Amino acid sequence: MAQSKRPGPKSHVITLKAVAQHLGLTPGTVSAVLNDSPAARAIPPKTKNRIHAAVKELNYRPNFFARTLRNKRTYTIGVIAEEIGDSYGSMVISGMEAYLRKMDYFFLTVVHRHDEHMLSQYSQLLLHRGVEGFITVDTTVNETPSLPTVAVPGHKKVKGVTNIVLDHVRAATLALNHLVGLGHERIAFMRGQPLSSDSKDRWEAICEVAQKIGLKIDPELTVQIDRDDPTPQLGYPFAKQLLARNKPFTALFAYNDISAIGAIRALQEQGLRVPQDVSVMGFDDIPNAAFNTPSLTTVRQPLARMGEVAAQTLLERIAGRHDYPSEIAIEPELVVRESTAEAPRV
User: Fold this and answer.
1) C-alpha span between 170 and 115 (Å, rounded)
2) Where are the alpha helices (DSSP H) in 182-220?
3) C-alpha dihedral over 254, 168, 180, 288, to 10 degrees?
4) For residue 112, how many other CB atoms are within 10 A of its CB?
5) Structural domains in the chain?
6) What single DSSP character describes residue 322?
7) Helices then strands (H, E): number in the chain?
């Protein structure tokens, strides 16, 4: 075997040929392994491991355009999001991006803000740009897509779509048992805005669990969020609505963390202390939840992990390695912080 030749210290861009010379192999062998081509099946695992180790050691980055032309692929996926400026969407996309970058994939993102016409146009635009699959974020998929698709979160069973779903019944059980365990019986609720893909399933889960544990949901202590807003303004006016009804409550379960943070502001302006007078529970566990004053008790859904799972699942489907799952369930977790406490004694 030829002697390995390490590229000289003046080399700034490591080429495939340089990696091959370093290993004493042919460029074709290295290329076959890195592209996982059919020819790679005949290459011993020990050699494959040497090649991958050398690629890491030398910090070799494949030429994207050469790989695209050679394999007649784009290594690009389309991301269809309702919003990327909110904490939910940004965390999902962050987890997705980390995995795609590791796998040398690109992604193109479009934002539709629940505009059906724009959603249709953007989907076609991504198809024309040659994407190999879709990941949707907080976007309801109603029709069978033309490419492999993963929905975060997904709620409708549609052929060709893998849904990343949170166990909302488990989430509602964690939240309501926590509040009831602290002695809260008069609990107010903020229902999610109808356009949010999680709203219906989350509210149905809350009603189901409340009935199961004997907790009465008072319509006068329930408000419906009817707007999209990535800031605490999402919850602030609706907490004001609850307070204006002059019906006392000792706890508030908000639709998500950002609405809970807005609600806390409204309660404090009314002279109420959180949690001494009113406990507040959020949902999601966005980064700001831990740094709010008081820090927010919430139901955590691992948003970055959900994005990572979505990306991994989509690439496996694009590669055709196995039959795709129609649903992947993610477990929630209760995070207890400062915004909840025992119900005040009457």
Assistant:
1) 32
2) 199-213
3) -40
4) 19
5) 16-70 (1.10.260.40), 74-166+303-330 (3.40.50.2300), 168-302 (3.40.50.2300)
6) S
7) 11, 12
Structure token pair of residue 88: 């939910």
pLDDT confidence of residue 322:
63
Using the structure block, give the residue that is written with the tokens 């998929």.
Answer: 141
| CA proximity to 310, closest of 295, 294, 291, 325 | 325
Reported as a single tens digit per residue, the pLDDT across 199-213 is 999 999 999 999 999
Highest-confidence range of 6-10, 48-52, 270-274, 317-321, by mean pLDDT?
270-274
Helix (H, G, I), strand (E, B) or coil at 25: coil
- Please name the residue ranges forming H helices in the chain: 16-23, 27-34, 45-58, 64-71, 87-102, 116-128, 168-181, 199-213, 236-244, 257-269, 303-319
User: What's the rounded Cα separation, in Å, for the pair 272 and 302?
Assistant: 31
> In the structure, what pLDDT confidence band is assigned to residue 133 with cuts at 50, 70 and 90?
very high
Bridge partner residues of 282 (DSSP): 298
Residues 6+ apart with CB under 8 A from 253: 175, 176, 179, 187, 188, 189, 190, 206, 281
